[in-house]
């Protein structure tokens, strides 16, 4: 294995598959299957999950809601996704803990950094829900923050595209895909694969980011093995090419 401890960022949209809203149980089962393979190989894995399949704070705000209120609702949506993924993993006999940044003691543990690390050391999957617990911050930023806190070797950003492009590949058939990039290039050119705060956090803590297509079966395991499945951003020596 190329990595010992990893942070996987899953978007809420990834969990709804081809549905227009909600959670596709088959997609969740497929993701859980891939994660279980990784765990059985001895890799420690933590997950940050979004909530955009249920509620997205910024959209609620644009519709007239108070932005902070809308963001808190979005955080609660991420906990629903986290619990759904936990259930799928535990049905595969993978021990899993959900930790939330907002106290919900009846259904999840509170986020405690040392406890999260201890769970990982014992081979448990840890799913971080409720974002960072603060409005105005994305779950991408939460992923970068948690990756730094647990001393992850890498942050995997699972998306619907196979890497980072210089323009939207769905709108531009001639869009160029990058194999390697520096953090600075992503920030300077506003490539928007993650928000600027998340990229800056990873840069400061020298955490490489691997962006890959989650919908391709087996890609989680390939990424963790170090195979080329997408775009790599940064690393300890900022050795990316652009």
Put the structure in a nutshell:
39% of the residues lie in helices and 19% in strands. It is α/β, with parallel strands linked by helices and 242 residues long. The longest helix is centred in the first third of the chain and has 25 residues, at 67-91.
List the helices and strands and how they pair.
Elements: E1 5-10, H1 12-15, H2 25-40, E2 44-49, H3 57-62, H4 67-91, E3 96-100, E4 109-110, H5 113-121, E5 125-129, H6 139-149, E6 154-159, E7 164-165, E8 177-178, E9 180-181, H7 183-188, H8 196-205, E10 209-213, H9 219-225, E11 230-233
Parallel strand pairs: 1-2, 1-6, 2-5, 3-4, 3-5, 6-10, 9-11
Antiparallel strand pairs: 7-8, 10-11
Key attributes of the depicted protein:
242 residues, alpha/beta, Carbamate kinase, nine-stranded mixed β-sheet, 9 helices, globular
